[in-house]
């Protein structure tokens, strides 16, 4: 099991915009380099990418949650 951590402090978003589906849903498979969400810092958006592959992702942070740098965003099996 691996964790995907927030690279920056800011607001976590699971999709590119409110009218689009999330990048990944709980239970989805993830490949290394897949975007799993965005962190907004002062109106600038930064992609959060998985560093490793896994068969099951479980999000620990909800959409629009404030997060600190290094905070766990998701668990990856």
Automatic annotation (TrEMBL):
<dbReference type="GO" id="GO:0009317">
    <property type="term" value="C:acetyl-CoA carboxylase complex"/>
</dbReference>
<keyword id="KW-0092">Biotin</keyword>
<dbReference type="Pfam" id="PF00364">
    <property type="entry name" value="Biotin_lipoyl"/>
</dbReference>
<dbReference type="InterPro" id="IPR000089">
    <property type="entry name" value="Biotin_lipoyl"/>
</dbReference>
<keyword id="KW-0443">Lipid metabolism</keyword>
<protein>
    <recommendedName>
        <fullName>Biotin carboxyl carrier protein of acetyl-CoA carboxylase</fullName>
    </recommendedName>
</protein>
<dbReference type="GO" id="GO:0006633">
    <property type="term" value="P:fatty acid biosynthetic process"/>
</dbReference>
<feature type="region of interest" description="Disordered">
    <location>
        <begin position="1"/>
        <end position="26"/>
    </location>
</feature>
<comment type="pathway">
    <text>Lipid metabolism; fatty acid biosynthesis.</text>
</comment>
<feature type="domain" description="Lipoyl-binding">
    <location>
        <begin position="1"/>
        <end position="77"/>
    </location>
</feature>
<keyword id="KW-0275">Fatty acid biosynthesis</keyword>
<keyword id="KW-0444">Lipid biosynthesis</keyword>
<dbReference type="InterPro" id="IPR011053">
    <property type="entry name" value="Single_hybrid_motif"/>
</dbReference>
<dbReference type="InterPro" id="IPR001249">
    <property type="entry name" value="AcCoA_biotinCC"/>
</dbReference>
<keyword id="KW-0276">Fatty acid metabolism</keyword>
<dbReference type="GO" id="GO:0003989">
    <property type="term" value="F:acetyl-CoA carboxylase activity"/>
</dbReference>
<comment type="function">
    <text>This protein is a component of the acetyl coenzyme A carboxylase complex; first, biotin carboxylase catalyzes the carboxylation of the carrier protein and then the transcarboxylase transfers the carboxyl group to form malonyl-CoA.</text>
</comment>
